[in-house]
């Protein structure tokens, strides 16, 4: 099975953000055109996954600048944040940014890459640890979230 290219990953990410961002159709169209242009311009240089967090954050910025009545924030997982204490602190900081929004989304980028770093094979042990971490973040968000609010968590 072929791996998804970085450009395809960014396009899919933009489509998801467009779908969850309740906004004026004209603004959505303009953001879509800007992101497509942006990806087309840099596609030849998109050889590695290491550039993706920065580019994904730029796409998040385009969506947040276009307005909308929802909260959106971005969390790029670094190597040190695979430790539960640091990951929890970073995640809670992002949850605090979204307080006051009835409809919010956190985009978590790089969690899978953080567990598969240093050229490690994706073993069952790494997969289990990754799934355990995702479940931990989901439970943390569910306990933190206010009643009547909707929080989406996107893992890219």
Question: How would you characterize this protein structure?
Answer:
The protein has 156 residues and is an alpha/beta fold. Strand 1, helix 4 (84-97) and strand 2 form a beta-alpha-beta unit. The protein contains six helices and three strands. The radius of gyration is 16 Å and the shape is flat.
Structural class: alpha/beta
Helical content band: 55-70%
Classify the beta-strand content into a percent band. 5-15%
What is the tally of beta strands? Answer: 3
Question: Order of strands in the sheet with the most strands?
Answer: 1-2-3
H and E order: HHHEHEHHE
Question: Termini distance?
Answer: 19 Å
Query: What is the residue-averaged pLDDT?
Result: 79
Number of helices: 6
Oligomer: single chain
Keywords:
3 strands; alpha/beta; 6 helices; 156 residues; three-stranded parallel sheet; flat
Q: What's the structural blueprint in terms of helices and strands?
A:
Layout: H1 6-20, H2 25-42, H3 52-65, E1 71-76, H4 84-97, E2 103-109, H5 111-115, H6 124-144, E3 150-155
Parallel strand pairs: 1-2, 2-3
Helix pairs in contact: 1-2, 1-3, 4-6
Give a short summary of the structure.
The protein contains 6 helices and 3 strands; from the N terminus they run H-H-H-E-H-E-H-H-E.
